[in-house]
Amino acid sequence: xxxxxxxxxWRIVALLFFATTINxxxxxxxxxxxxxxxxxxxxxxxxxxxIIAAFQAAYAIGLLTTGRLLxxxxxxxxYSIAITLWSIAGMFHAAARSVxxxxxxRFALGLGESANFPAAVKTVAxxxxxxxxxxxxxxxxxxSSIGAILAPLLVPWIALNYGWQWAFIGTGALxxxxxxxxxxxxxxxxxxxxxxxxxxxxxxxxxxxxxQKVPWRKxxxxxxxxxxxxxxxxxxxxxxxxxxWLPKFLNNNxxxxxxxxxxxxxxxxxxxxxxxxxxxxxxxFMIKRGMDPIKARKRTILFLAFLVVPIFFAAFTASLxxxxxxxxxxxxxxQGYASNIFTIISDIYPKNAVGSMVGLSLFAGSIGGVLxxxxxxxxxxATGNYYLIFGFASIAYLLSWFFLxxxxxxxxxxxxxx
Length: 418
Description:
Blueprint: H1 8-41, H2 45-73, H3 75-92, H4 99-113, H5 116-127, H6 130-162, H7 164-185, H8 197-203, H9 223-254, H10 262-288, H11 293-308, H12 320-348, H13 351-383, H14 387-407
Helix pairs in contact: 1-3, 1-5, 1-6, 1-7, 1-9, 2-3, 2-4, 2-13, 3-4, 3-5, 3-7, 5-6, 6-7, 6-10, 9-12, 9-13, 9-14, 10-11, 10-12, 11-12, 11-14
């Protein structure tokens, strides 16, 4: 067996991990500060909903364009442009005062942040052989959970000690620190002066990916495409709601403010990590016992969908920790759902169509997020309570499963796309 000398590729994964962590910190700052900003800047509920929708609309647009842009200009330059854009946009929030200027800042943030996952996945494909890519992807993707946990610790401390403007400036500046390490470290493996020949051989052991990528228009005609896209259209907005509206909900219903917001959010996001593990394990367990992979994923999603149903009562309870527990259970289920819905794509579609289908389904989820965030603002303004919002969340995953059951048949894959 040939000995691999060199572990430079793991430095690249470390940079991807920190970029993803920063990505999630930057996108959460507004949600954590929302109760204070709404009071200071006199936002209505619908104003806040439109500000959030601006981010999601830009994120959807970015998903349409960033992949091809990265292919054209390369990962090193493309990633640098993306994190520069979202860092400047994050810092620009400190100068914003009107609803329009905050929406503009969120739109720019969404455009920049939409490139993070396409760029990271592309980097992993460039730097790792196929047998190591799942591990490398899991390592960098864990940055999203770390970012979701760090933000409630970091943002309130900065805001309480230095003012809310510095929370945006301080977190936005993290991207420029990351660039300081990225630019001198990253090159394509074939052109990297610090990469040892044996490690380069290890990275390139599969040869080059020559399969032509499949455009979206070729996955449209299949019923599975509609089923998976509808599923994410219904459920992705619930996760967006957790990210951007939970601090406001906890403030409005339970009096939680910047001084004590950290622990409830940390409990919710740490619990959600367990769902990602359990959801993947449960469907894998069923498959090992002989069940068809697609059927196993759908059965797991049904089980997780029932775990979300009790979230309806979070809108009624007077107990903070009962509400946190119900939301944490739903977040746990969502992450388990996410582990399975994206794996269904790789179960069904040929390898050269997986990227297009993931992009299309995420686009559907982003459009759902735009509509849901706008609706949430108007519902709160009209009713003053979260009953309808948590009511929809409680059934969204069951509806998602229904569309999967209806449109995604078991034991059927798509072998070729033409």
